[in-house]
Input
Amino acid sequence: MSQSQPTSTTRRSFLGAATVATAATAATLTASPIAQGEQADKIKVAQTPAEAKPTPPAAPVVKQGDWSKPAAMAIPKGGAFKQEQGRYGLIYPRTPANYGFSILAKVKPGRETAVREYGKTIEKAVADAPDLLAPLKLHYLRWVLFEIEGDTYFMYQGIFDTDFDKYIEDAVALFASTGIITVFTNFEGFPENWQGNVPAINKFFHEHQCPSFLEYAEYPYATADEVKKALRVKSAMSNMLDQMQ
Output
Protein backbone atom coordinates (compact mmCIF):
# COMPACT_ATOMS: atom_id res chain seq x y z
CA MET A 1 0.00 0.00 0.00
CA SER A 2 2.73 2.44 0.90
CA GLN A 3 4.43 1.88 -2.44
CA SER A 4 1.28 2.57 -4.50
CA GLN A 5 0.30 5.69 -2.54
CA PRO A 6 2.67 8.17 -4.36
CA THR A 7 1.37 6.93 -7.72
CA SER A 8 -2.26 7.36 -6.66
CA THR A 9 -1.52 10.81 -5.27
CA THR A 10 0.25 11.80 -8.49
CA ARG A 11 -2.67 10.60 -10.57
CA ARG A 12 -5.17 12.41 -8.35
CA SER A 13 -3.09 15.58 -8.72
CA PHE A 14 -2.95 15.20 -12.48
CA LEU A 15 -6.73 14.58 -12.67
CA GLY A 16 -7.30 17.62 -10.50
CA ALA A 17 -5.08 19.74 -12.74
CA ALA A 18 -6.80 18.37 -15.82
CA THR A 19 -10.21 19.24 -14.33
CA VAL A 20 -9.06 22.81 -13.63
CA ALA A 21 -7.61 23.11 -17.15
CA THR A 22 -10.82 21.76 -18.67
CA ALA A 23 -12.90 24.20 -16.65
CA ALA A 24 -10.64 27.10 -17.65
CA THR A 25 -10.87 26.11 -21.29
CA ALA A 26 -14.65 25.88 -21.11
CA ALA A 27 -14.82 29.29 -19.44
CA THR A 28 -12.58 30.80 -22.11
CA LEU A 29 -14.65 29.34 -24.93
CA THR A 30 -17.88 30.47 -23.27
CA ALA A 31 -16.50 33.99 -22.94
CA SER A 32 -15.40 34.16 -26.56
CA PRO A 33 -17.66 35.76 -29.19
CA ILE A 34 -17.62 32.52 -31.22
CA ALA A 35 -18.80 30.41 -28.28
CA GLN A 36 -21.43 33.00 -27.36
CA GLY A 37 -22.68 32.98 -30.94
CA GLU A 38 -22.89 29.20 -31.00
CA GLN A 39 -24.76 29.19 -27.68
CA ALA A 40 -27.20 31.80 -28.96
CA ASP A 41 -27.82 29.75 -32.11
CA LYS A 42 -28.60 26.67 -30.00
CA ILE A 43 -31.10 28.66 -27.89
CA LYS A 44 -32.80 30.01 -31.02
CA VAL A 45 -33.13 26.52 -32.50
CA ALA A 46 -34.53 25.18 -29.21
CA GLN A 47 -37.14 27.96 -29.13
CA THR A 48 -38.17 27.49 -32.76
CA PRO A 49 -41.61 25.86 -33.16
CA ALA A 50 -41.57 22.27 -34.39
CA GLU A 51 -43.16 23.16 -37.74
CA ALA A 52 -40.60 25.89 -38.49
CA LYS A 53 -37.25 24.86 -39.94
CA PRO A 54 -34.32 27.12 -39.00
CA THR A 55 -32.31 28.55 -41.87
CA PRO A 56 -28.88 26.87 -42.16
CA PRO A 57 -26.04 29.24 -41.19
CA ALA A 58 -23.90 30.66 -43.96
CA ALA A 59 -20.55 29.03 -44.57
CA PRO A 60 -17.92 30.74 -42.37
CA VAL A 61 -15.35 32.94 -44.06
CA VAL A 62 -11.80 31.92 -43.25
CA LYS A 63 -10.00 34.90 -41.80
CA GLN A 64 -6.33 35.49 -41.14
CA GLY A 65 -5.50 33.88 -37.83
CA ASP A 66 -8.08 31.08 -38.21
CA TRP A 67 -5.85 28.03 -38.57
CA SER A 68 -8.60 25.50 -37.80
CA LYS A 69 -9.97 25.21 -41.35
CA PRO A 70 -7.86 24.50 -44.45
CA ALA A 71 -7.97 27.34 -46.95
CA ALA A 72 -7.05 28.05 -50.55
CA MET A 73 -6.60 31.39 -52.29
CA ALA A 74 -6.76 32.04 -56.02
CA ILE A 75 -4.48 34.95 -56.91
CA PRO A 76 -4.95 37.24 -59.94
CA LYS A 77 -2.44 37.31 -62.77
CA GLY A 78 0.55 39.35 -61.68
CA GLY A 79 0.46 38.03 -58.11
CA ALA A 80 -1.51 40.76 -56.32
CA PHE A 81 -5.10 41.86 -55.81
CA LYS A 82 -4.22 45.54 -56.11
CA GLN A 83 -1.28 47.34 -57.68
CA GLU A 84 0.15 48.74 -54.46
CA GLN A 85 3.82 49.66 -54.40
CA GLY A 86 6.04 48.99 -51.41
CA ARG A 87 9.56 50.16 -50.70
CA TYR A 88 11.07 48.38 -53.70
CA GLY A 89 8.21 47.11 -55.85
CA LEU A 90 4.78 45.51 -55.93
CA ILE A 91 3.39 44.39 -52.58
CA TYR A 92 2.41 40.73 -52.72
CA PRO A 93 -0.45 39.56 -50.46
CA ARG A 94 -0.26 37.26 -47.49
CA THR A 95 -1.94 33.99 -48.44
CA PRO A 96 -3.07 31.01 -46.33
CA ALA A 97 0.49 29.72 -46.83
CA ASN A 98 1.85 33.08 -45.56
CA TYR A 99 4.34 35.13 -47.61
CA GLY A 100 6.71 33.68 -50.16
CA PHE A 101 8.25 33.83 -53.60
CA SER A 102 9.47 31.72 -56.49
CA ILE A 103 12.57 33.32 -58.03
CA LEU A 104 13.65 32.03 -61.43
CA ALA A 105 17.14 32.94 -62.68
CA LYS A 106 19.48 31.74 -65.43
CA VAL A 107 22.72 30.19 -64.21
CA LYS A 108 25.92 31.56 -65.68
CA PRO A 109 27.65 29.07 -68.02
CA GLY A 110 29.83 26.63 -66.11
CA ARG A 111 28.46 27.61 -62.69
CA GLU A 112 26.05 24.73 -62.03
CA THR A 113 28.58 22.80 -59.93
CA ALA A 114 29.26 25.90 -57.82
CA VAL A 115 25.53 26.32 -57.20
CA ARG A 116 25.19 22.71 -56.08
CA GLU A 117 28.21 23.02 -53.80
CA TYR A 118 26.65 26.09 -52.24
CA GLY A 119 23.80 23.88 -51.05
CA LYS A 120 26.35 21.93 -48.99
CA THR A 121 27.69 25.23 -47.62
CA ILE A 122 24.25 26.15 -46.28
CA GLU A 123 23.73 22.63 -44.90
CA LYS A 124 26.95 22.83 -42.88
CA ALA A 125 26.33 26.40 -41.74
CA VAL A 126 22.89 25.49 -40.35
CA ALA A 127 24.28 22.34 -38.73
CA ASP A 128 26.93 24.43 -36.97
CA ALA A 129 24.48 27.19 -36.01
CA PRO A 130 20.84 25.96 -36.13
CA ASP A 131 19.49 29.49 -35.63
CA LEU A 132 21.55 30.92 -38.48
CA LEU A 133 18.54 31.60 -40.72
CA ALA A 134 16.15 32.50 -37.89
CA PRO A 135 16.03 36.23 -38.84
CA LEU A 136 14.41 35.25 -42.15
CA LYS A 137 11.35 33.76 -40.39
CA LEU A 138 11.33 30.86 -42.83
CA HIS A 139 8.93 27.93 -42.93
CA TYR A 140 10.52 26.20 -45.91
CA LEU A 141 13.18 26.82 -48.51
CA ARG A 142 13.59 24.83 -51.72
CA TRP A 143 16.21 25.17 -54.45
CA VAL A 144 15.74 23.58 -57.86
CA LEU A 145 18.03 23.34 -60.90
CA PHE A 146 16.62 22.42 -64.32
CA GLU A 147 17.37 22.87 -68.00
CA ILE A 148 15.51 24.71 -70.76
CA GLU A 149 16.87 24.25 -74.28
CA GLY A 150 20.36 23.50 -73.00
CA ASP A 151 20.53 26.37 -70.50
CA THR A 152 20.50 25.79 -66.74
CA TYR A 153 18.01 27.66 -64.58
CA PHE A 154 17.68 27.99 -60.83
CA MET A 155 14.42 28.28 -58.90
CA TYR A 156 14.45 29.61 -55.35
CA GLN A 157 11.18 28.88 -53.54
CA GLY A 158 10.61 30.20 -50.05
CA ILE A 159 7.71 30.46 -47.58
CA PHE A 160 8.19 32.88 -44.69
CA ASP A 161 6.38 35.12 -42.21
CA THR A 162 7.78 38.51 -43.20
CA ASP A 163 6.84 40.36 -46.37
CA PHE A 164 8.80 40.21 -49.64
CA ASP A 165 10.87 43.38 -49.12
CA LYS A 166 11.59 42.69 -45.44
CA TYR A 167 12.88 39.22 -46.31
CA ILE A 168 15.42 40.67 -48.75
CA GLU A 169 16.53 43.30 -46.24
CA ASP A 170 17.02 40.64 -43.56
CA ALA A 171 18.87 38.36 -45.99
CA VAL A 172 21.31 41.12 -46.97
CA ALA A 173 21.94 41.89 -43.29
CA LEU A 174 22.49 38.18 -42.65
CA PHE A 175 25.10 37.93 -45.41
CA ALA A 176 26.87 40.96 -44.03
CA SER A 177 26.98 39.59 -40.48
CA THR A 178 28.07 36.04 -41.38
CA GLY A 179 30.37 36.75 -44.32
CA ILE A 180 28.54 34.15 -46.41
CA ILE A 181 28.53 34.96 -50.13
CA THR A 182 25.09 34.65 -51.70
CA VAL A 183 24.49 31.91 -54.26
CA PHE A 184 22.95 34.56 -56.54
CA THR A 185 26.39 35.71 -57.65
CA ASN A 186 26.25 32.67 -59.96
CA PHE A 187 23.23 33.96 -61.86
CA GLU A 188 22.99 36.23 -64.88
CA GLY A 189 21.78 39.76 -64.18
CA PHE A 190 22.60 39.74 -60.47
CA PRO A 191 24.20 43.09 -59.52
CA GLU A 192 27.97 43.02 -59.16
CA ASN A 193 27.78 45.59 -56.35
CA TRP A 194 25.26 43.53 -54.40
CA GLN A 195 26.90 43.69 -50.96
CA GLY A 196 24.80 46.03 -48.83
CA ASN A 197 22.88 47.18 -51.91
CA VAL A 198 19.34 46.33 -50.83
CA PRO A 199 17.53 48.29 -53.61
CA ALA A 200 19.57 46.58 -56.35
CA ILE A 201 18.99 43.11 -54.92
CA ASN A 202 15.30 43.79 -54.43
CA LYS A 203 15.05 44.98 -58.03
CA PHE A 204 16.61 41.71 -59.20
CA PHE A 205 14.22 39.64 -57.07
CA HIS A 206 11.13 41.53 -58.23
CA GLU A 207 12.18 41.18 -61.87
CA HIS A 208 12.74 37.42 -61.48
CA GLN A 209 9.71 36.66 -59.32
CA CYS A 210 7.23 34.14 -60.78
CA PRO A 211 3.99 34.82 -58.87
CA SER A 212 1.75 31.88 -57.97
CA PHE A 213 -1.94 31.90 -58.88
CA LEU A 214 -3.10 29.42 -56.22
CA GLU A 215 -1.89 28.76 -52.71
CA TYR A 216 -3.27 26.31 -50.15
CA ALA A 217 -2.56 25.60 -46.49
CA GLU A 218 -3.81 22.82 -44.24
CA TYR A 219 -3.34 25.13 -41.22
CA PRO A 220 -3.68 28.60 -42.81
CA TYR A 221 -1.91 31.72 -41.58
CA ALA A 222 -0.06 29.92 -38.78
CA THR A 223 3.41 31.37 -38.30
CA ALA A 224 6.55 29.29 -37.87
CA ASP A 225 6.80 30.45 -34.25
CA GLU A 226 3.22 29.36 -33.57
CA VAL A 227 3.80 25.94 -35.11
CA LYS A 228 6.96 25.41 -33.04
CA LYS A 229 5.17 26.57 -29.88
CA ALA A 230 2.37 24.05 -30.47
CA LEU A 231 4.93 21.28 -30.99
CA ARG A 232 6.70 22.23 -27.76
CA VAL A 233 3.40 22.05 -25.84
CA LYS A 234 2.64 18.67 -27.40
CA SER A 235 6.07 17.37 -26.46
CA ALA A 236 5.73 18.65 -22.89
CA MET A 237 2.31 16.98 -22.50
CA SER A 238 3.65 13.70 -23.90
CA ASN A 239 6.60 13.78 -21.48
CA MET A 240 4.28 14.48 -18.55
CA LEU A 241 2.00 11.57 -19.44
CA ASP A 242 5.01 9.30 -19.82
CA GLN A 243 6.09 10.21 -16.30
CA MET A 244 2.64 9.23 -15.00
CA GLN A 245 3.00 5.63 -16.16
